[in-house]
What we know:
Helix content is 81%, strand content 0%. It is mainly alpha-helical. The chain has two domains: 3-100, Rna Polymerase Sigma Factor, Chain: A (Orthogonal Bundle), CATH 1.10.1740; 111-190, Winged helix-like DNA-binding domain superfamily/Winged helix DNA-binding domain (Arc Repressor Mutant, subunit A, Orthogonal Bundle). Helix 5 runs antiparallel to helix 8 (160-190). The N and C termini lie far apart (79 Å). Mean pLDDT is 85; it is low at 186-191.
Amino acid sequence: MDAEVRADIALIERIVAREADAVGELYDRHNRLLFGLILRILRDRSESEEVLQEVFVLVWTRAETYNVALGSPAAWLVRIARNRAIDRLRANAVRLRAVESAPAAANVDNPEAQAAASEQQRVVARALESLPSDQRTLIEEAYFLGMTQSELADKFKLPLGTVKTRIRAGMQALRQQLSGYIFARVGAVED
Length: 191
């Protein structure tokens, strides 16, 4: 085992011991290699930067899963980066298909219709923002990225029942908040 590999293993051991500066050192040692790989897969600089950040967040949260018997730390990092980049590529493809398959919005020429559509978007955005982040994230990924509940359970390392419960609770909270908006709009129209 060469000195580079031993140094990387020592950094991972420090990360497992929750030494935050070890992540920075590991990042400094491998960010160029990983960024290049991610950029080749995604072909988008800003998305590649985001995925690189996700890789090191995963390293911080899952460093104890590194196994010396399965390869060098660099190979482990490359595997994580490749998987995250491919996940992002797939999510982007799902999002694009969803946008392309969505019915075209009606041409809204009059100012009242534009204002109403804009107000509805704001109300929905506010309702989503009011949810706890664990519910909001699952709902957004399920509905905007097209992920199944099983895929979400795998991605977030949660039991499937927890994913279902959080989505159901979040959707009930959204329904409650948005029904108040609908009743307020109906009342305004009747007045």
